[in-house]
Amino acid sequence: MRVLAINDVSCVGKCSLTAALPIISACGIECNVLPTAILSTHTGGFTGYTFRDLTEDIGGILKHWKTLGLKFDYILSGYLGSTEQIDLVSSVKKEFLADGGKFVVDPVMGDSGALYAGFTDEFVEKMRGLCREADYILPNMTEACLLADMPYPLTKKTASEALERLTKLCPFPIVTGITDNREISVYFTNRSGCAYSITHENVEGFFCGAGDVFASAFVGALARGKHEADAIALASEFVTAVIRRSSKEVPDKRFGLNFEAEIFPFLKQLNSLK
Ligand code: PXL
Fold first, then answer.
1. Which fold has domain 2-266?
2. Residues 216, 222, 225, 226: is their CA dihedral positive or negative?
3. pTM, to two decimals
4. Average pLDDT by consecutive 10-residue portion of the chain (274 residues)?
5. Residue 35, preceding bond cis, omega within 30 degrees?
6. Could you tell which of 14, 15, 85 is best to mutate to test the pocket of ligand 1, judged by most ligand atoms within 8 Å of the CB?
């Protein structure tokens, strides 16, 4: 079982590949990486960060992988630095996803109702195209609104409408971070068109990287052969525990989630599930 995580390396701040690698590996699954950019920190709340786009390197990396006959059982794409990289990810899927493999797209573009620094409407449109190629998409509420062209924030009522619109892009949309007062929910629709939600207590505190922790745990659990609904429940429980702990323990939230401390309970749950 081989997972490819396509994401940036934010050297400090615990998101993207510095979350995907440890979490997927801890699940007992090999995690290979395709870095899209290197930043000194993530862009959420820091100023003065460096950003080196790695698009130029990706062609050579893929050419080498082709000579090795590599195929991946899961491809998880995350933060992409340009519309050109969206095209590259699409070609990686076509060339390197194993027969029967799954393509998981986390359409990283924004949070709290706004696009991240450097993202444009053109990027959103292009990301819709990538979502059409995915087996699962994992937008947060902001990204779901952008992709479904609906006003932010969603409510319990409009979340169903957003899900319905998203199923036109991808058969299995999973929308994270839908908040309603003291509750936070994940809404998803399975391939039969049934809609579900999983709700937890909403813990105050915004952390960059929560979506990456969710996506990594979801893919790790799927790669371990867990049913999708169980993988979503496990991942949302994990990320809720991580945010609860971090909101107490991390004085400067920009430095990211303490997911490490919750990996062991997460693995205990993962291992006890059939
Ligand atoms: O986790 C989202 C993310 C990923 N990568 C970079 C980011 C962010 C969120 O701000 O800045 C570089």
1. UDP-N-acetylmuramoyl-L-alanine:D-glutamate ligase (3.40.1190)
2. positive
3. 0.97
4. 98 98 98 98 96 97 98 98 96 98 98 93 98 98 98 90 96 94 91 91 88 98 97 97 95 96 98 90
5. no
6. 15
